[in-house]
């Protein structure tokens, strides 16, 4: 009888743990659109995070953390503010198309609307992009945050014809999908799974 009670107790505990774990909803990528027109690429996405706008703002405005949530970035860091007082950033990405591998540098500044929006604008004079502009809009929703992300890019480097654009679009899509869970983990104070 004692073993029967222990078995029932363990089953009840396991059921309770399963039910409680279901209360914490994971991040959800709701929409992602990637378009290309010649050398111009645009990515738009919407994702819901089980984290506050303040927590996400802290993660997405800190380039020291970017290396933790996307494998495309080999190096990233915050840089001293520019002469206008705008926070600056540096990031170096790496990517390969078949046997062609390239390292890409982005240097730029942030335009911040605390807890609402972050815009990262790359300076083409010291970057490998003619245009690179990202924005993250943070909208409180259902006890978490809806993140509306836009990325516009024109590379200032040779992209192998035919396969190059395909691989860039594929990398943008895969990177966005994988980053969602990692960003949420960091925002919740957890170590992201690689």
In whole angstroms, the N-to-C terminal distance is 46 Å
The total number of structural domains is 1
CATH class: Alpha Beta
**Sequence of secondary-structure elements:** HEEHHEEEEEEH
Uncertain stretches of 5 or more adjacent residues: 1-23
User: Considering DSSP H and I runs of 4 or more, what fraction of the residues is helical?
Assistant: 25-40%
| CATH H-level superfamily | START domain
Task: Give the CATH topology.
Answer: Alpha-D-Glucose-1,6-Bisphosphate, Chain A, domain 4
Class per helix and strand makeup: alpha+beta
Number of distinct helices: 4
- Major beta sheet summary: 8 strands, antiparallel
- Taken from the alpha-carbon principal axes, the silhouette is globular
CATH architecture: 2-Layer Sandwich
> What is the CA-based Rg, rounded?
20 Å
Number of strands: 8
How much of the sequence is in beta strands?
Answer: 35-45%
Whole-number mean pLDDT: 83
Strand order across the largest sheet: 1-2-8-7-6-5-4-3
């Amino acid at each position: 009888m004692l073993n029967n009670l222990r078995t029932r107790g363990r089953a009840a505990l396991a059921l309770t743990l399963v039910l409680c774990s279901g209360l914490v909803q994971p991040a959800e990528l709701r929409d992602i659109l990637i378009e290309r027109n010649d050398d111009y690429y645009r990515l738009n996405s919407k994702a819901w995070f089980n984290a506050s706008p303040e927590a996400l703002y802290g993660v997405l405005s800190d380039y020291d953390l970017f290396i933790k949530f996307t494998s495309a970035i080999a190096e990233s860091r915050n840089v001293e503010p520019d002469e206008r007082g705008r926070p600056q950033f540096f990031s170096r990405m790496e990517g390969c198309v078949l046997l062609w591998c390239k390292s890409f540098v982005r240097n730029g500044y942030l335009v911040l609307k605390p807890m609402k929006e972050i815009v990262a604008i790359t300076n083409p004079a010291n970057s490998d992009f003619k245009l690179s502009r990202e924005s993250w809009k943070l909208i409180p929703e259902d006890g978490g945050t809806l993140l509306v992300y836009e990325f516009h890019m024109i590379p200032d480097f040779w992209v192998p014809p035919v396969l190059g654009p395909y691989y860039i679009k594929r990398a943008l899509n895969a990177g966005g999908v994988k980053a969602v869970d990692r960003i949420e983990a960091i925002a919740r104070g957890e170590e992201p799974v690689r």
